[in-house]
Input
Amino acid sequence: MKTYNCPSCGAQIALRDINVKSDVMLCRACGKTVSCSRYLQREAAGHAPGEPPTRVRAIHNDATFDRQREERIEWKYGLWGVLFGALLMCAGGVVLWTDIGWYCGRVRCATNPELGLVVSPFIFLAGLAFTIFTIFGKFSLSIADGWCTYFIGVGKIGRRREFRLQRDTSVEFEVVPMKDGSEQFWKQIRISNNDGADVVIGSLRMDVAEYLCKWLVYWAEKR
Output
């Protein structure tokens, strides 16, 4: 299990004294508080990030005549993403099949068949798209020639954001409450520079977010 030590006195900080929601870590030995995000950034500086967590892959590509030297990290959805997409596909397919049967006179009754004929194809296609993205798509951060690229998509099709990675690049770990008012929270990383560039990488597991923070800070310190 990962341990956290106070930067002031070196004493180990208990997990119960770490409040990620408030971004506060309390050291009971000396009574001082530390920002969680700043602690992770200070801890990562100058240290290689180590082995990536599950479903995360770190890739190193050396320079060739047609490619720059590149450091890249990729992460993907797990098996639950495939199951969720398959569930959507099955739900949309069953409703569509039932409503087509009602329309053709083979099924005597159906719940809101007219609405189902319109909505169920979109449910099926949404599940299909999510399944394809879970299997073939990726989230990635790549660093080449001082530029960091954040990409979400399949192959070369998707959303791409670029920003200059510098020694003073701010990498902050944030916990944002969900809009539905539940007790669950999104873990995200905010990357910003003095030139106004601001990129948010959201919806991350805790271990993935911590690893990305260390990875980004480590390569920023090398600039």
Remarks:
- The CA atoms of residues 90 and 144 lie 42 Å apart.
- The mean pLDDT is 79.
- Residues 79-135 form one domain.
- The longest helix spans residues 79-103.
